[in-house]
């Protein structure tokens, strides 16, 4: 019988068993963990994409509104200039 205490550096934790199945190998656990992390990143990326798509739609609507307001402003400006030119032509100021 040895009186030495076993070193924790030399021992490995036992592999995680599946429910009613074979023992999972260490690299399988690492692969499953990596896949799980990638699935979480994918879900986050999809949420971010959906948020950005919504923002783009809102911005496109705002751009349409701004273009319409600019066009109306240009029409009013042209009408004002025509009216001013007509008044100056008549000599009324």
Explain how this protein is built.
By secondary structure, the chain is mainly alpha-helical. It has one helix at 26-90. The radius of gyration is 36 Å and the shape is rod-shaped. The N and C termini lie far apart (118 Å).
> How does the helix and strand content classify structurally?
mainly alpha
Helix content: 55-70%
- Note the total helix count: 1
- Elements, N to C (H/E): H
Uncertain runs are: none
Radius of gyration computed on alpha carbons? 36 Å
Descriptive tags:
93 residues; mainly alpha; 1 helix; rod-shaped
Question: How is this structure best summarized?
Answer:
The chain is mainly alpha-helical and 93 residues long. The protein contains one helix and no strands.
Show the helix and strand layout.
Blueprint: H1 26-90
